[in-house]
Amino acid sequence: MTRAAVLHGPNLNRLGKRRPDKYGHATLADIERDIDGTAARLGIAVEHFQSNHEGALIDWLHERQDGLDLIVVNPAGLTPYGYSLLDALNDTGLPFGVVHISAFAAVDGRTRPDIFAASAAVYASGMGWHGYAHALEALNAKIKEV
């Protein structure tokens, strides 16, 4: 069975309450249920982890990476400068997909770099919470091609 990790970065625990005009009304629990449904349909076992701390995301990934086949990550506020998390993802040697609920390139009218984009096997931005399912499906298809 394919094993996947879904990492949720800073402030995503506040989804549904934090800026619903921008991020919608779905909570992180709602999104995880949707991801779990997609994973079950694809025959993927998925583990979720959210933290507001980059080091906790890295520690969690280090503890589990040897048992994984793919990773989906929403780096959230770490996107322009989470180099340690990016290094940890690249060091796994696994394909990973980046998800941004909103169109990240122009958050709040500012252009910010996405340091994760160039390394991502799959990139979903501005698709709302549906981007997670799309990233999981696309990554699953990529590993089946190999």
UniProtKB/TrEMBL annotation:
It comes from the Bacteria. Catalyzes a trans-dehydration via an enolate intermediate. SUPFAM superfamilies: Type II 3-dehydroquinate dehydratase. Homododecamer. Belongs to the type-II 3-dehydroquinase family. HAMAP family: AroQ. The record marks 18 as: Transition state stabilizer. It comes from Streptomyces endocoffeicus. Coiled coil: none annotated. Substrate binds at residues 74, 87, 101-102. The gene is aroQ. Keywords: Amino-acid biosynthesis, Aromatic amino acid biosynthesis, Lyase. This is 3-dehydroquinate dehydratase. It catalyses: 3-dehydroquinate = 3-dehydroshikimate + H2O. Its EC number is 4.2.1.10. GO terms for molecular function: 3-dehydroquinate dehydratase activity. Pathway: Metabolic intermediate biosynthesis; chorismate biosynthesis; chorismate from D-erythrose 4-phosphate and phosphoenolpyruvate: step 3/7. PANTHER family: CATABOLIC 3-DEHYDROQUINASE. The active site is at residues 23, 100.
